[in-house]
Amino acid sequence: MDPRQQKLAKLLVNYSTRIKKGDIVRIQGEAVTIPLMKAIYKEVVKAGGNPFFQVTIPEAEEFMLKNGSDDQLSWVSPLQKFEVEKIDALFVLWGSENTKYLSGVDPARQAMKQKHRKPIVDRIFARIGKKEISWVGTQFPTQADAQLAEMSLTDYENFVYGAGRLNDADPVKHWEKIEKEQSRLVKIMNQVDVLRIRSNDTDLTMRVGGRKWISCAGRSNFPDGEVFTSPVENSANGRIRFTYPAVYGGREVTDVSFELKNGKVVKESATRNEQYLKKMLDMDKGARFVGEIAIGTNYDIKQFSRNTLFDEKIGGTCHMAVGAAFPEAGGKNKSALHWDMVCELKKGGEITGDGRTIYRDGVFVV
C-alpha cells in the first residue's frame, strides 16, 4: 500500500470525521477503491467505531438504467431509508474503473432515478446540517481517473495526494492553518449582502445577506479548500461563462454559459453536449436555480482534472452550482440536481461585496 493512503485514512478518521466509540460508520465506494476502504475500516476500528461497507457496482447501475421499468427506476430500498436514520458517519470514496460508464444511458432515465432518490439525499443533507452525521468524501487514484485527467497514474497519485498535503510530515497542521484563515474570511463574507462577480463574459450579481458562509478545510471533502454559501433564491441576475468543461454523470459539457434572471437560468448554451445540459436543467423545477456560490482557495491544485472534487477547489476560481442548496447555509432551493461549474478569476477577475472589492485576480484582498 502507498504509505500516503494510510496517512490519508488516519486523517479522515481522526481529523475529518472525528470518529468516536460506538459510531455506526458506512464506508462506500466502487470495488476499485477497496484498498483505501480497508485502511479506513481499520482506523475506524481503532477509534472504537462500528464500520460496514457498501460496495457499488457500476455495471449493475448501468444495466438498471438501460433496462429497468419506470417502476424499478422509481423504487427506493426501505433498507436505505432505515440506514440513513441510523448511521453516525459516512465515508464516500470516489474512484472508478470507467468514468464514462453512464455515457450511453438516456439522461431522462438518469434524471428519473435521481428524482426518486431525492428524499434519501435530502435526509442525509438534513442530518449533516444538524451535525447528526459526520461525513467526508475523498478521491482514490485509479487508472480511469488518471486518464480522464490526462495524466499517468503516478502523476495522478502525486496530484491527488499533493492537493491534500499528504507528503507533509503532519498534514493536519496544514489543514488546521487553512481552517483558521478561512474562518477569518467567512466572517468578512458574512457581512456582505450584494455579491458581484466579474470576469471574461461574466457579470453576475446576487444577494447573500442573511445566508451563512461556510469554510471547507478538510472536514467534509478531502482534499478541500473553499468558502461557500447558498444565495437568496430569486436574487441572481446577469451572465456567467464557465472556464472549464462541466462534468456530470460521466458526460463533459464544454464552454457553458448561463443568463440568469431572478435567480433562474433563463438561457443556456454549450459547444458540446448542449442537449444533455438542457435535460439536466429541466430535471425538476429547482434545477435551474442557483444552489451554491463558492470561492476556491486550494493553491496546491494547479491544473484542471475533470474531477469536481479538485476543480472547484482550484485557488483563483469561483464555482456556482445549479440545483439543490445547502440548508446549513440557509439555502431553500430543492432539486435532485447539484451541478458545480467552475469560472477562473486569475486574469482580471473581481468580486465585490456591497460595492467594495474583496477579491481580485484570483486572491482575496481583504
Name the descriptors.
eight-stranded antiparallel β-sheet, 11 helices, 366 residues, 2 domains, Thermophilic metalloprotease-like, alpha+beta
Task: Describe the 3D structure.
With 366 residues, the protein is an alpha+beta fold. It folds into 2 domains: 3-140, Thermophilic metalloprotease (M29) (Thermophilic metalloprotease-like), CATH 3.40.1830.10; 182-364, no CATH class. 33% of the residues lie in helices and 28% in strands. Helix 6 links the parallel strand 3 and strand 4. Helix 1 crosses helix 2 and helix 5 runs parallel beside helix 6. The mean pLDDT is 95.
Radius of gyration, whole Å: 20 Å
Query: What's the mean pLDDT score?
Result: 95
Structural class: alpha+beta
Let me know the largest β-sheet. Answer: 8 strands, antiparallel
Helix content: 25-40%
Quaternary structure type? single chain
From the N-terminal CA to the C-terminal CA, the straight-line distance is 43 Å
How many domains? 2
Number of H- or I-type helical stretches: 11
Strand content: 25-35%
- Strands of the widest sheet, in order across it, are 14-13-10-6-5-18-19-20
Structure summarized in a few sentences:
The protein is of the alpha+beta class and 366 residues long. The chain has two domains: 138 residues, Thermophilic metalloprotease (M29) (Thermophilic metalloprotease-like); 183 residues, no CATH class. The chain contains eleven helices and 20 strands.
